[in-house]
């Protein structure tokens, strides 16, 4: 699967886009430069997939329609294909830059050597795109049959029907993945990396127009595609913006190359119209800002052409009319819901929601350099000084590049497009909130980086060639080195999704498909995609099941089934929980039917009585006995037979982390530590009896943390992350043989290295042990209400008052 998603999938995606690009090139007078074929092809495939999913009956055929378009493009452009093959040697630099961009964008996954994605623990929007792409490719843009009682249906309905969420990137991503039968969760990161690599083509053309050639143009294109802010957005899976970036740069190329199509046949506007349509489909009406910049420059060019008599008014009307028609049809699903799309854009522009931002981004981040592992935080110490030195150098290069473009190369259209793009960012930045401003800043950053590389071209064109060449090399090193160093720091801080855990969820979905609705108690919105055949509901999701909204204290917080009225669970035959002995098992009406390394599945027993009352228990055995008595005393004698059912609490030995020795600079979180830098924790704990114990850890741990007991390494924990840093993540246990008495536990975070996530999250919230013989779902004990004291003397998770019926729930009778 790793080789298929990381290596084969981008090749298939490139073939789909290239074939579609060749088809458009054939239809539009064959003027498209080779470097634009993939971008224009991607735009065309977006338009096709949007239209096919708009007709729900055609939606499942979308992958094959995309393939048919690509095949048709190759078939009708054999001469162009041969021409491209012959020119491969001449185009080695842009191809090399594209491949390198893909490798850098996918580096965390490639180096880890496993299927994963790096947007984990950032925004959960990636889960929505996986869920939406799957739904649109199977059912199309048809939502009437959705079950709105659970999170799965609510998410799809609210995002794609109610809010007209832009789905252009989703349908391209979904259609290309379905063609190979790939799980969308594992093709997500390669898709984003591919779209970033595709942006190298137009960036290369723009760099050439600035006066750069060969390796200099390739490095300029690479750094313009991967500035620090863009790389950050790619790492956390901002699929709409990453897809739109290639389209924005391609529009800039068509503006610069206007003489090749603007004064020719009307069909020359086909590529431009498709790029705008795809941008609107992928980003919504917010893409209009970038389209407007291109249109304004082209309008100025056309006015000049009309005055010079180089274009006829009739031809101009035909071109504008034809382009408008293509734009209308290609983005018809978005235009039809334009009101909703516009509302979404306005909401994003005005919302107080900050996404994953705690404060607005800084304007100087636009130059592409930010020497910090997080784009949200300012660099510290020497990194701060180095960052601002590089920023000043880049800004001086921008000024030099603009002067060079106007005075020496007289590239008025290029300079106008560059400047108007920056002005558009400034205008938008003044009228929107921090979240929308950050997105606009990210999309403008490549433009500013290209402007800085214009300064390299200016130095290289100095009359004193040796001096100019040396100065250009120094400036190129500063610009390229600053961007790549910024990306390397973010790469080391990336958090990869836990592969094994999601593979286990996929197995659950296959095993229990169609047996829902299913309640998921773990906060993990990616479960909606992985368990899509089980009609998932998550009380702590953005859209919780209305009947269970009170089971969690808020979005992302733990779900406590003890807060749910037993009658509210009647519609859920299945409950999926994390394997965690510290959390109460579900109600007595459910029994464990499956257990893996990470999850447990509980099924409601047919005919099981619904509890009349469910009470969580805490405190000592004596305190719990009094609470059981109060529950028994509340039973009405005249209401028939009643029983008490109690869930025994597991034996837990907690390791006292608060009394440990640890590095002073480690921060405190809950009962544990934020392991911000390499170091070792040492703590003494005791077990009451000898034998085999299970060692459990809780926390968010990306780098490998080695665990030792009494100087002997027992295992390590790595890549064990949950969907929310607010919730302790319980990892699968490690079996250890221990004698009764005191032992010393050591937890060691290693030194930073170039492995992905070596500077990622490392939060150790807790460590505990359970006897190896315990199942993790302790036995239930039953006693008649009149004999409630038979339950005393033990510790329980909860007690229930239930009708006395003959049900199939396996419980043990409590004895005095």
Write down the domain tally: 2
Strand content: 5-15%
Structural classification: alpha+beta
**Helix segment count?**
26
| C-alpha geometry | globular
What is the average per-residue confidence, as pLDDT, rounded to a whole number? Answer: 87
What value does the Rg take, in angstroms?
30 Å
Segments where pLDDT lies below 50 for 5+ residues?
Answer: none
- Oligomer kind: single chain
Q: In angstroms, what separates the terminal alpha carbons?
A: 57 Å
Main sheet? Answer: 6 strands, antiparallel
Helix content: 40-55%
Strand elements, count: 20
Please name the defining characteristics of this protein.
816 residues; 14% strand; globular; 26 helices; alpha+beta; Jelly Rolls; six-stranded antiparallel sheet; 48% helix; 2 domains; five-stranded mixed sheet
What does this structure look like?
The structure is a single chain. With 816 residues, the chain is α+β, with helices and mostly antiparallel strands. It contains 26 helices and 20 strands. Strands 8, 9, 10, 12, 15 and 17 form a six-stranded antiparallel beta sheet that branches. A five-stranded mixed beta sheet has the order 2-1-3-5-4. Strand 1, helix 25 and strand 2 form a beta-alpha-beta unit. Helix 1 packs across helix 2, helix 1 crosses helix 3 and helix 9 packs across helix 10. The chain starts with a helix and ends with a strand. The relative contact order is 0.09. The mean pLDDT is 87.
Short description:
By secondary structure, the protein is α+β, with helices and mostly antiparallel strands. The protein has 2 domains: 2-351 and 362-492, no CATH class; 653-771, Sandwich (Jelly Rolls), CATH 2.60.120.260. Helix content is 48%, strand content 14%.
């Amino acid at each position: 699967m790793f080789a298929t998603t990381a290596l084969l999938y981008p090749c298939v995606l490139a073939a789909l886009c290239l074939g579609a690009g060749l088809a458009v090139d054939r239809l539009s007078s064959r003027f498209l430069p080779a470097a634009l074929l993939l971008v224009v092809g991607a735009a065309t495939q977006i338009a096709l997939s949007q239209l096919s999913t708009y007709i729900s009956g055609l939606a499942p055929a979308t992958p094959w329609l995309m393939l048919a378009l690509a095949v048709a493009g190759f078939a009708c452009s054999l001469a162009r294909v041969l021409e491209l093959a012959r020119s491969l040697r001449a185009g080695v630099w842009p191809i090399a830059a594209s491949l390198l961009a893909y490798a850098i964008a996918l580096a965390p996954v490639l180096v880890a050597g496993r299927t994963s994605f790096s947007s984990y623990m950032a925004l959960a929007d990636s889960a929505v795109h996986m869920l939406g792409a799957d739904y649109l490719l199977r059912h199309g843009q048809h939502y009437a049959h959705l079950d709105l009682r659970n999170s799965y249906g609510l998410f799809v309905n609210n995002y794609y029907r109610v809010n007209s969420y832009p789905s252009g990137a989703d349908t391209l991503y979904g259609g290309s993945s379905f063609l190979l039968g790939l799980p969308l969760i594992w093709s997500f990161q390669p898709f984003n990396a591919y779209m970033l690599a595709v942006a190298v083509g137009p960036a290369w053309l723009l760099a050439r127009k600035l006066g750069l050639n060969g390796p200099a143009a390739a490095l300029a294109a690479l750094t313009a595609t991967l500035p620090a802010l863009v790389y950050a957005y790619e790492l956390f899976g901002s699929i709409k913006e990453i897809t739109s970036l290639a389209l924005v740069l391609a529009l800039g190329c068509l503006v610069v190359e206007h003489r090749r199509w603007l004064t020719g046949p009307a069909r020359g506007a086909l590529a431009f119209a498709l790029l705008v349509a795809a941008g609107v489909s992928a980003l919504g009406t917010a893409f209009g800002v970038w389209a407007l910049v291109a249109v304004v420059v082209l309008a100025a060019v056309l006015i000049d052409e009309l005055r010079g008599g180089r274009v006829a008014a009739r031809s101009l009307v035909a071109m504008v009319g034809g382009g408008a028609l293509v734009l209308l049809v290609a983005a018809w699903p978005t235009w039809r819901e334009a009101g909703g799309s516009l509302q979404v854009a306005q909401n994003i522009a005005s919302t107080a929601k900050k996404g994953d931002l705690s404060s607005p981004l800084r304007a100087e981040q636009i130059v592409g350099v930010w020497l910090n592992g997080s784009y949200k935080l300012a660099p510290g110490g020497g990194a701060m000084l180095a960052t601002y030195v590089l920023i000043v150098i880049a800004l001086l290069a921008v000024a030099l590049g603009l002067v060079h473009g106007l005075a020496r190369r007289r590239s008025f259209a290029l300079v106008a497009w560059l400047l108007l793009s920056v002005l558009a960012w400034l205008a938008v930045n003044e009228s929107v909130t921090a979240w929308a401003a950050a997105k606009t800043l990210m999309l403008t950053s490549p433009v500013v980086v290209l402007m800085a590389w214009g300064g390299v071209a200016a130095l290289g064109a100095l009359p004193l060639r040796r001096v100019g060449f040396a100065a250009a090399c120094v400036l190129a090193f500063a610009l390229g080195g600053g961007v790549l160093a910024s990306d390397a720091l973010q790469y080391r801080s990336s958090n990869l999704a836990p592969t094994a855990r999601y593979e286990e969820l996929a197995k659950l979905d296959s095993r229990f498909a169609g047996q829902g609705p299913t309640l998921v108690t773990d906060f993990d919105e990616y479960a909606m995609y992985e368990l899509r055949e089980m009609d998932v509901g998550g009380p702590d999701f953005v859209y919780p099941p209305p009947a269970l909204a009170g089971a969690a204290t808020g979005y992302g917080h733990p779900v406590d089934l003890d807060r749910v009225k037993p009658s509210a669970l009647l519609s859920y035959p299945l409950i999926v929980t994390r394997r965690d002995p510290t959390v109460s098992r579900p109600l007595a009406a459910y029994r464990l039917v499956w257990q893996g390394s990470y999850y447990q599945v509980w099924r409601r027993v047919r005919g099981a009585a619904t509890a009349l009352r469910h009470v969580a228990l805490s405190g000592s055995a004596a305190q719990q006995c009094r609470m059981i008595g109060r529950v028994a005393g509340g039973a009405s004698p005249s209401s028939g037979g009643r029983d008490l059912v109690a869930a025994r609490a597991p034996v837990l030995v907690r390791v006292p982390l608060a009394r440990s020795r640890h590095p002073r600079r480690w921060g405190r979180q809950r009962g544990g530590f934020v392991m911000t830098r390499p170091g070792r924790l040492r703590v003494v704990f005791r077990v009451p009896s000898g034998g085999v114990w299970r060692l459990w850890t809780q926390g968010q741990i990306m780098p490998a943390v080695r665990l030792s007991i009494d100087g002997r390494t027992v295992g390590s924990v790595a890549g064990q992350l949950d969907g929310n840093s607010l919730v302790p993540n319980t990892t699968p246990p490690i079996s250890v043989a221990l004698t009764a008495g005191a032992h010393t536990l050591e937890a060691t975070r290693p030194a930073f290295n170039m492995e992905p996530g070596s500077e990622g999250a490392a939060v150790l919230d807790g460590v505990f042990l359970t006897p190896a013989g315990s199942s993790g779902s302790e036995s239930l004990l039953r006693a008649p209400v009149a004999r409630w004291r038979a339950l005393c003397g033990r510790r329980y998770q909860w007690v229930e008052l239930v009708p006395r019926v003959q049900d199939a729930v396996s419980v043990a009778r409590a004895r005095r």
